[in-house]
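Help wanted!
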Amino acid sequence: MTLQTPPPSTDLAETLLSMGRKARAASRALGKLSADDRTRGLKAVAAAIREAAPEILEANAKDMDAARAKGLDAAMLDRLALDGSRVAGIANGVEAVANLPDPIGRELARWTVPSGLDIARVAVPLGVIGIIYESRPNVTADAGALCLRSGNAAILRCGSESALSSRTLVAVMRGALTAEGLPEDAIQLIPTQDREAVGHLLSGLDGSVDVIVPRGGRSLVERVQRDARVPVIGHLEGLCHVYIDGAADPENAIAITVNAKMRRTGVCGSAETLLVDTAIAATLLPKLADALKAAGCELRGDGRARAIVPDMKVATEEDWATEYLAPILAVSIVDGIDGALAHISRWSSGHTEAVLTEDQAVADKFFADVDSAILLHNASTQFADGGEFGMGAEIGIATGRIHARGPVGAEQLTTYKYLVRGKGQVRP
Amino acid sequence: MTLQTPPPSTDLAETLLSMGRKARAASRALGKLSADDRTRGLKAVAAAIREAAPEILEANAKDMDAARAKGLDAAMLDRLALDGSRVAGIANGVEAVANLPDPIGRELARWTVPSGLDIARVAVPLGVIGIIYESRPNVTADAGALCLRSGNAAILRCGSESALSSRTLVAVMRGALTAEGLPEDAIQLIPTQDREAVGHLLSGLDGSVDVIVPRGGRSLVERVQRDARVPVIGHLEGLCHVYIDGAADPENAIAITVNAKMRRTGVCGSAETLLVDTAIAATLLPKLADALKAAGCELRGDGRARAIVPDMKVATEEDWATEYLAPILAVSIVDGIDGALAHISRWSSGHTEAVLTEDQAVADKFFADVDSAILLHNASTQFADGGEFGMGAEIGIATGRIHARGPVGAEQLTTYKYLVRGKGQVRP
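Answered by r_m:
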């Protein structure tokens, strides 16, 4: 196994432009492979990751030492850490992507027009995707695998914390591709943590990068959205709401709300604000508050919520605008579905919201009126996840409005072209 | 009929922010209307345009006087000019959009996952679309109609040449919406030609604009792509190729090539470069050159083309890179399909290319290898048009890779959300 090393050029711009050209060439080659070839490559990558677990863990141990020395907090260390079971999980994730239906070449639509032309819309890869992410090493494999599945070449830029883990993973993946006679430059990692490299990538590398996918915290995504000269698919934040309607089943409502907030508080699909219908608040909220507090959750309520559960902290307007990513939940009592819709319309980040009710008309109204990427009826917001949606894995959850919305899996990393079959037609 | 006038505020930024807020409110209202309501609005708009033809022509006559005084060239004047039949054509275009299937609320996909969740992907409007265009007044109506059909609010910015024509058209359209009880702010026109207004629009108006669609020449599109802080759907240029294979039917090849170049030379789907297989060049090119010259086309050839047709001008490398939008055609002799693919891969703008051949294997290879938005087999590149694709009208042809590619009609002006139906599921 050889780590990908920087080319001899000391010119960072030229290094990156050269990576861009290699990625473009690899993307052309990848798109022409058969679905079976791409599947074979993915299975080889999964096997290689399993086999290289010792090297990957060794590299990760060095990353962990450096991270501890830098004083990273426990949550960051947890995101960075690998063990045998997590490496197996990474390999299984790649295997799951290998078993997904191949999205390339699918006929998305086909029709004949009055001129007699036969028009087909066929899925093709996006091309070259630049992925900028923070500490989780598994993103290296997930992103590389989803790009391979969808015929795209990936240029990865990892966070400095996971640099050695990611370099090792990429070297393993590239080695597996080479051994299968597939283009290793389908997966490249920027071999330096120089911050200027990000700027070059965001510039599009002279037309070699088609899309940028940022995966990380708000400041990263904002920088990418501000500076990118190529289209960006990303999510800014997941300020997810749960609305408990007066017609909710109380037991379900408690179980779902506790899960939506507390299953994992650091994921974008975790609930941040709870809206409770005034019609059910007096009976439900005390029990729900007890369940949340028992699970370790801090509650911050508006005046009406605190009138029912007085030991909540006071929620200020800032709380309605905050993605805590922590065991804290803002609570507001609202006047039925209309109150909930008004609150969500004002504060939602467009990611995921849930309505808990046994009244179908209320659920229908919520589904019709709320304009977020994912709406759930009687289920936890923590299902906002590509894997749970049956996409195998995800490269992120898009909260923008164009191209893809919600979980971005292999299918969302495609575009299409039109194949028009004529019989000598000229246009009058 | 009252023209939309600037608000009393002298602050341009505030004027535009206020337009943004009105557009956002209108887009929310529009998206909740039924398909029948949107259809009714479109039919009323078409009828109102027919009825207001005298006022529209009067305004256009003033625009034409000003344009002549400014010394605009004949092609520009032709794009700007309206007459009774063109106004009828504009109304018919709106009527055609009224008769299109409504894209909003369609269930694009639906499946159940192992957790038991029922997941539906449902089409919703993009939201607020900013459209920046140049001289053709018909874009005002086409863009407004396509936005209405797809539940989007439009903020239009027309070129200064068509300012009065466009203002009048917008006033007519808004009046028709108001009369039908629909939100008139679904269609707004920026009421000043101040160039700074474009900058404000490109900034996204404090989150009120979801997408920008530029429709015009290269310098406009480049400025928009450079400065926009919101996603852009646009096309940069249509450098379209026709490849005549050795196995082409000669008669068809001549008819299609003349049509592809000469039917209308100013449209983005007109052919700019002709590639002729060396296997057929000696017999076909003299006849084809005669037919093109008879139609008024200037030819510029490479050495091999000029060896066959000596009176062509010399084509330089710049010719392969030029979208003439004029009766000029660059001609290169290539070595079969591989030579054609190499040329197209190097010079194509990703818009539209045609292959003329009776050999299905060659057509298949062309379709598989060329990565442009529209590929045609044995048909003219001038079919690259939303109307010809059965989309009723188009707001442009996208050559980017994300969201929409090729003709952008009502369906392409949508995004989607996920409706997830559960029965109390929590995530383990």
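OP: Thanks! One thing I noticed: The two ends of chain B are 62 Å apart (CA to CA).
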